[in-house]
Design goal:
- The chain is an alpha+beta fold and about 500 residues long.
- About 40% of the residues lie in helices and about 25% in strands.
- A five-stranded mixed β-sheet has the order 3-2-1-4-8, with helices on both faces. Strands 11-10-9-12-13 form a five-stranded mixed β-sheet, with helices on both faces.
- Helix 4 packs across helix 8.
- The two termini are about 85 Å apart.
- About 5% of the residues have low confidence.
Length: about 500
């Protein structure tokens, strides 16, 4: 969007186009009906440009205020109330924060500024609003004075700035770069000598006025900066000799234009182009236009934001599409490489498989057989868990000596008797029962028959403690079957002999 600048003084408005540090005049419009019609036509021709208005008018007011520490809407409401108290009849106002007091309450110091003659701006602002062009803001020459001095390397806490604007002298009292007082003094003699003498006289008058208003001390040193054309610098230097507390510093407007990177050099003493260049390159944060005047500017900001967001989304989509295209190409190349590798491996497999001995079964049958073999390996059952269960019971009963153990799964006959090697691994399905046969003897010194039988019964009960076990007694330590007589003792030698027994543990493996 092209930037254009409007310069409004007391009797006309000038339009400038700005591009790469070069200002070019595009129109001069008088403050009458004809000039306003021409201005409306100019706006229609450049309705897509962004405008900023720089004002140099006499009706400009400043006031200092102190408000409590507030934030957000409360602060804005209080500032609006203070504006109404100082500048009742104008919407063209702005507030500049001067920092906070170093007291416990932390009050905020404000500089309230206003253009007190809104009727002078209204015809021009009405044409801008009717043309629906973007107005970035309204600024003043006094507002840009402190920024001009900073750009030129002139730093001072309090100073005067005098510039020639149109047919008048703009006199501004600056404190830390902010205008606390500004006025216009007419120039009756436009010659070099007349302008030089007017600058000297007005600086003295302004100094006396500030002393009278108690804005500065009577003996306080006050620098005064004067901007002038190179041809008028000698005359101004001669007329503005240092007078007591006033010390003058002259600024060459052409040198200032170079520091500001302004390619269009001022042709006379007027400093309009310098302030327009400042406005184009570094506009102040505060401006005087109300939200109503900047309505179309806000719409243009929203429009540019949406366009920027759309461009970012489009760029993101293009980058994502490029990435996906690259990934797809990589995958296609990888797939091609894998196909070539597969073809090579298939060829090698065919060559190797041609050397294999020929079987009488086809591949599908062989695959089923190997799968079945794998299933049987997973279903096989070993005797180790059964032997562990028996050993845990025997550990608790030292009087029982294991003489043999055998294990079989289901109805298999693969039984290993004795205490030597474990039986062969059965390969039945795990659904069949497992049978563990335990043969042992009870060895107790000087034990009675009843004591031996009690130990045997404890052993059987310990095996039956596992609810999954079913115990069959194959041989008791003593024969107590019907038809036989249980004798208390056949002598001490017989009782001392080990009493053998045999039990069968049946355990189901069904899931």
């Amino acid at each position: 969007m092209t930037s254009r600048f409007l310069y409004l003084n007391t009797h006309r408005l000038l339009a400038y186009g700005w591009q790469h540090g070069s200002l070019r005049a595009e129109g001069v419009f008088d403050n009458d009906e004809g000039g306003l019609r021409q201005f409306a036509d100019y706006l229609r021709q450049h309705r897509h440009s962004q405008f900023s208005l720089l004002a140099n008018v006499a009706e400009e007011g400043h006031a200092l205020e102190t408000i409590p520490f507030l934030k957000g809407s409360d602060r804005q409401t209080l500032i609006s109330r203070k504006m109404g108290q100082h500048f009742f009849s104008t919407p063209l106002t702005t507030a500049t924060s001067l920092g906070y007091e170093k007291s416990q309450r932390k009050n905020e110091k404000l500089l309230l500024s206003a253009l007190t003659n809104p009727a002078h701006f209204e015809p021009w602002l009405t044409r801008i609003s009717d043309a629906e062009v973007s107005l970035a803001g309204i600024y003043t020459v006094a507002q840009l004075g402190g920024q001009l001095l900073r750009k030129l390397g002139q730093h001072c806490e309090r100073c005067l700035l005098l510039t020639v604007q149109d047919h008048s002298i703009r006199e501004t009292y600056l404190v830390d770069g902010h205008p606390h007082f500004s006025r216009m003094a007419p120039v009756t003699d436009s010659s070099i000598a007349g302008i030089a003498s007017a600058l000297a006289a007005e600086s003295g008058k302004l100094h006396q006025y500030l002393i009278g208003q108690r804005l500065i001390g009577r003996g306080e040193s006050l620098p005064a900066f004067i901007v002038g054309h190179p041809q008028t610098i000698p005359a101004i230097d001669k007329a503005c000799a240092d007078k007591g507390p006033l010390s003058f510093t002259l600024i060459d407007s052409h040198l200032a234009a170079g520091r500001l990177k302004l390619r269009t050099l001022p042709e006379d003493n007027r400093s309009d182009l310098l302030f327009l260049q400042l406005l184009a390159t570094a506009p102040p944060q505060q401006q005087f236009a109300s939200d109503t005047h900047r309505h179309h500017f806000r719409l243009s900001q929203i429009r540019r934001g949406l366009i920027a967001a759309g461009l970012c989304a489009l760029l993101g989509g293009v980058l994502y599409a490029a990435k996906e295209t690259y990934d797809a190409g990589s995958l296609r190349a990888e797939a091609s490489a894998l196909l070539l590798s597969k073809a090579d491996l298939d060829h090698r497999y065919q060559e190797i498989s041609a050397t294999f001995p020929q079987l009488d079964v086809d591949n599908d049958t062989l695959r089923r057989v190997t799968n079945r073999y794998s299933d049987l390996l997973h279903q096989q059952h070993l005797p180790a868990p059964a032997f562990h269960r028996v050993s845990r019971v025997l550990d608790r009963m030292p009087a029982i000596v294991l003489e043999g153990i055998s294990w079989k799964n289901g109805q298999d006959a693969g039984t290993s008797k004795g205490a030597t090697a474990p039986p062969a691994i059965a390969t039945n399905r795990r659904g069949g029962p497992e049978i563990t046969t335990v043969r042992g003897s009870i060895r107790l010194e000087r034990a009675t028959t009843r004591q031996i039988l009690a130990v045997f019964d404890q052993f059987v009960d310990a095996l039956r403690a596992d609810p999954a076990n079913s115990i069959n007694i194959l041989q008791r330590p003593f024969d107590i079957e019907s038809g036989h007589t249980l004798r208390s003792s056949d002598g001490e030698t017989e009782v001392a002999q080990p009493r053998q027994f045999a039990v069968e543990i049946v355990r189901s493996n069904a899931p």
